[in-house]
Amino acid sequence: MDRKFGWTTLGIIGFIFAPLGAFFIALGVLLFAVKAGTEPEDPMVFLSVFGGMGLIFCLIGLSFLGVDLRRRNAMKRALDGGDYVMAKIVGTQPKLNVNMNGSHPFVAECHWTNPDTGETHVFYSRYLYFDPTDMFTSDEVPVYIDRMNEKVFFVDIDAVLPKVVVHR
Known about the structure:
This protein has 168 residues and is of the alpha+beta class. It has helices at residues 9-33, 42-81, and strands at 83-94, 106-113, 120-124, 140-145, 153-155. Helices cover 39% and strands 20% of the residues.
């Protein structure tokens, strides 16, 4: 079964910045190696400008990628080795702060009350780019919670949705 952990904006930016930074580093090293320029200090200027800018872009991109990969691995760890609970789906709502091609993605809101502590936990699913309100096959969804960190969870929304193909 296909589990969707999704990339966040940080991961996508990381995919752009890291190779762009590596390109500028390589360009700076290449211009330094071929002694580009007309003045004796020009190769060092090229290395400093292109290499420095490339290093900054590369570090930003790699750190963004690292943060997103860590998030995805934590969710995968919760799914593979965590405890699961059945949370009640209380509704869906559009995420109005996110806009994708003029429309807003939906999330499913799920509630689970811990019988030991009496605390009610609220979980949100991943973004769904269609309104799933009338499509749920059950009113409860499995939520996998990491045993070491209860803030890390994965709402298995695919378990209660039929296979959906969106055509635009």
